[in-house]
Amino acid sequence: MARILVYAVDAEDYLPLLRAVAPGFSLAAATTPEQAELHLDAEILFSWGIPADLVRRMPNLRWVQWLGAGVDRVVRALPEHVPLTRVVGAFGTVMTEHVFAFLLAIRRDVFAIRALQQERRWQKVPGQPLRGQRLGVAGLGAIGRDMVQMGRAFGMEVWGLSRSGAHADLVDRHFLPRDASAFAAGVDNLVLVLPATPETNHLFGARELQAMRAGSILVNVGRGNAVDEAALAEGLRAGRPAYAQLDVFEREPLPQESPLWDLENCFVSAHCSGPSELQRVGTYAVENLRRYLSGEPLLGVVDKTRGY
Is 252 a catalytic residue? Predict the structure, then answer.
């Protein structure tokens, strides 16, 4: 019996790190459901991406450490007595870089600059500075707070939206989900870092998107359910928003028939804004295993009623 099962594309890389903390434990690595089937009697699960139906069939499970920030794939598969922890504080910097890379590329129109170069044309391209623009951050958790900090560094006014308002003091103006339309209407650049919960499902639909400013940009690096993709496709065709960068989707991989693939003002990336790098995530996982074994409070405990 493996007391710890690691299920991830790089599962084998985690084993030496975990073994150093739990030398007496038997560990197993799985990269496919078929491999995981052999270790469903495990007590501890470290994973990102294991199918929920396999989790439901793990009778001895005592703790799940999710190797990512969003837990919507697994949270409903766990009984109440099994704690679920997620990685907090390891993705904000890299995801913020992803978001601002696209904001800068669009505002400074690097695509037009490249096209002119390919045509060997010497022509100035007017860019828009981020300084003085208004940034809207929906979701003020650890990642969202990094977005706010970067917006401040660029000299932007920052608005925020969150469920509780616990971090309202970090932004110039705070909104609750019920005011999503007014929030979307007031910003030049809208960044979504929301968790997947029933409350966030299609929070940004046709009404909210139609309210966005001419020339606005929407970036979603949270969870795909927050945006009504059909309404977004229509909005992009109408120029509200003017551009979108989507790293997450309602269905992943994004279906081939989705109109988002073909819209020139939509930039699609494959859920890669916050890669689970072993150095950062592994350190976090090892610390939580140490805490579990010593009976100390775990980091990143998920409130299953909220979903994050």
Answer: yes
